[in-house]
Sequence to fold (435 residues):
Amino acid sequence: MAESEGFTKAFEALKAGKYEQARALFDQHEASAGTAAETRRWLAEGDAALAAGDTQTAGARYDAVLDRNPSLPELYFGLARLALFSGEVSAATVHATAATRLAPKTGRAWTLLGLVHEAKGDGAKALELLEKGAALSPDDFLCQFNLGRVLADQGDFARGVAALDAATKLEKNNPAGFIALGVAYERAKQHAKAVTALEKATFVQPKSFDAWATLADVHFAHQDYKAARAALDAGLRACGDHPALLEKAVAVAMVQADTKGALGYVRRELEVVPDHEQAWLNLAGLLLLDKQVDASERAAQECLKRHPKSWSAHFHLGNLYEAVPKDAEAEAAYGKAIELAPAEWKPLANLGALLVQGTDADKHAEAVKLLEKASTLAPKDELRPRYNLALACARLGKIDKALEHARAVKKAAPPGSAMAVEGAKLEANLLEKKS
Fold:
């Protein structure tokens, strides 16, 4: 921190809470030192770095300004936003509070303090402060944007849309306002208006992958897969091969049963992010779906080279080997998946079902243990593990226990569903066997 008589007087006034006096003294000190322009440049550089996601540079510039002139409200705006961006809520509280003391009539100060309370989970206080910020600064995009966003999040769509619409008029080329407006319209069940707002976001900033992704998500939610894919393809043309857009495109193509198209997207994704685990898993799954068994196995093995603890890759290999069939290899792969992820129900269920199929009583006993655990971990509407548990008990001659599980399946399954029919049929077969 600079040491001079002018700086010391200004700093003492600041510590005493005499904010207007401190600001005037710091301004005098900077004028005499000839540093005011450089300080403002540092502040602008910090804001630009933060906007670009360069938190290290932003922090360095803000720290430099803090050492020179700690009376600038704009400095605390930046520091509060940086702390929120970094998840440092305690620091954000300090900086936002300082901003409200230095600039009590500036809406942005109260808006930032509202964002701090939102980060703390205090929605009511956050809304109170955001409303104050928006009222004090009706022409500040950040104030109107965040008020509208939080109102919509809290279900007040009419007021939320109004604030967000105001924000889009303040910064007509900022896609964030149109994206938030589109999301608010969608949550308010005004789909056509949501699409219009999101298309506007892609128009004002064609390289905003978030705009294209959100537009695709809205189409996808309404099962308009053709429009979702068109949005993603347009986004890829505008933004280049962005991995988030490519991953969404894979999902849409899969829903459309376009395996070849999905394979094309996932291969492009791996060109961009070659270490992305889910992309390798998607590739392996799609290759298996396309009946390219050997290529699917290679993809899963490549995934394991890059991610040795990927239980999902071992699980995929288990499915692949079971389909071939190579039962011993399938058992080993499922076993490795269970070792890596003992709380995941799918490997337990698949290995248990595989062991039920043979004639080895020891494996049937092991299947019972696996399927009991799988039944406990699986979602309530996943009844196959318990159905297979009934089979395993029957193989061990435990007919009463098997009946208990078969009846539970029949009772839990939706009337007329395949599982209800299978449960009833198994119950009948077990009763016949018991008699």
About this structure: The mean pLDDT is 96.
